[in-house]
UniProtKB/TrEMBL annotation:
Protein name (database record): Hemerythrin domain-containing protein
Coiled-coil annotated residue ranges, if any: none
Residues in Hemerythrin-like domain copies: 2-135
Species of the source: Psychromonas arctica
Stored InterPro entries: Hemerythrin-like (IPR012312)
Organism superkingdom: Bacteria
Pfam families referenced in this protein's UniProt entry, alphabetically: Hemerythrin
Length: 179
């Protein structure tokens, strides 16, 4: 399960890189592909919020229950996931509006994107640098066996980085491959 989480993080970092590149282009007044950004928020909404975060939440809840962890850690993880979900929805809504030709000042959109990317990175780095190493050194094989049994979305397929890419994400997959 931890391998899955690490792999998801690498994949999400690639998507954040695409977003960063778009921010640079926007600042240089270049045309950007909003449809591509929409694919990213779609992926994060459908895959991260419905699969990646629930898997983490399951592991974290177990870890928090059976190991001594400060309240600060417990609260931060929960708050981060809630906040990321809200930020993803807000960014997705804004991209939808732009795709429907609503006038949104460029600065407002850049600020939204930057806020989103920075929060995502902070969260990923926190998990990778502090939480996951602590969990890895603390949980036993037995613990993992319990967790795997509890994980009920086992068969969920990654529609972008998985073995077969769904039509919805083909353009994004190609973009990542060539960039
Ligand atoms: Fe997370
Ligand atoms: Fe994560």
């Amino acid at each position: 399960m931890l391998n899955r989480i690490h792999k998801d993080h690498k994949n999400i970092m690639q998507l954040l890189q695409v977003m960063d590149n778009h921010i640079v282009s926007l600042k240089l007044d270049k045309e950007i592909d909003y449809q591509l950004l929409k694919s990213i928020t779609d992926y994060l909404k459908h895959y991260s919020d419905k699969y990646h975060h629930p898997m983490e939440n399951l592991i974290y809840a177990y870890y928090l229950k059976y190991r001594v962890v400060t309240d600060q850690v417990a609260n931060r993880l929960e708050d981060d996931h809630k906040q990321l979900k809200i930020l993803t929805t807000e960014l997705d809504d804004m991209i939808n509006m732009i795709l429907l030709d609503a006038i949104i000042p460029k600065e407002v959109f850049i600020e939204k994107m930057e806020g989103f990317v920075s929060k995502q990175k902070q969260h990923l780095n926190y998990e990778e640098a502090e939480i996951l190493p602590a969990i890895q050194s603390s949980l036993t094989e037995d613990d993992w066996a319990h967790l795997i049994l509890q994980w009920k979305h086992k068969e969920y397929v990654d529609p972008l980085f998985g073995e077969s890419i769904s039509d919805q994400f083909k353009a994004l997959a190609l973009h990542i491959k060539v960039s």
